[in-house]
């Protein structure tokens, strides 16, 4: 059964480009196109698409306002298409918080003919169609909201001096990381994160996490020492984030090929933490497509670290955790709202 997609974009040329890219996949049917929210509302009711692709920047009601209405009134998986600018990045992060399945860069006329882009867009749309049960669960439980009682009282929590938390996430990770880190105490263990997203998005995402978290959140820089109360987000782009040293540990940004299809790679981060920190570290592998992080999580478990994976019921995409579970890399599988507490308890002094 094919995935039925509706394309919403104010540009006729862009609607044609996206239609062409998706129509090449035999498992996707483009059932309609709309030039903005006004026409899209009627088509969503009439056609009941499995997935909507939505432009963020449109005249009249912008894509974010329309996305918010979709999520509240008629939850439907939405893939946002955005320009890879600073303004577009900030809007994309907000879209993911509102419940968009994923955000992708908007193709240029030339780039749209790129086979890799077409395949990535098609795979994202098909994965979004499978996320409808999660979307309905999200509407019921509002898992992105922080608990009313923090998992650790900021004035009392103290981490062990040798504790390090490593986290990996991909599709759905923006909401998951906000939920996870918003409950961390100010004096949390040093925490290193790889979240798959375009390079232009990571600066905005780090700033957003910093505003919502008690600890300081910033992009990792080469040579930065790991200290309590600091969360280090891997910058997107051409380098992997690793940890080196024998305590104090430091961040390393290392050039190299993609690993497990990604750069930065969760496998590279987890593997380095297993080698440098060993059993005093803990790791969490969150929602995401593919298998990045599975091998690294196995290395951490083999080194004696506690390894936690997000459970299927709270994942947007149960891909990376499922791959790790199949390898025997997962020590505990927990719902998202219980992961922070378990990590922090394990790292308590």
TrEMBL record:
EC category: hydrolase
The record describes its post-translational modification as: Phosphorylated by CheA. Phosphorylation of the N-terminal regulatory domain activates the methylesterase activity.
The family database entries (PROSITE patterns) matched by this protein are listed as: CHEB, RESPONSE_REGULATORY
Catalytic reactions of this protein: L-glutaminyl-[protein] + H2O = L-glutamyl-[protein] + NH4(+); [protein]-L-glutamate 5-O-methyl ester + H2O = L-glutamyl-[protein] + methanol + H(+)
The residues covered by the CheB-type methylesterase domain are 161-349
Query: What does UniProt list as catalytic?
Result: 170, 196, 292
Keyword terms of this UniProt record = Chemotaxis, Cytoplasm, Hydrolase, Phosphoprotein
Superkingdom of origin: Bacteria
Q: Which residues carry this modification: 4-aspartylphosphate?
A: 55
Family membership, please give it. Belongs to the CheB family.
Which HAMAP family does the record cross-reference, listed alphabetically?
Answer: CheB_chemtxs (MF_00099)
Q: What is this protein called?
A: Protein-glutamate methylesterase/protein-glutamine glutaminase
User: Source species, please?
Assistant: Sphingomonas abietis
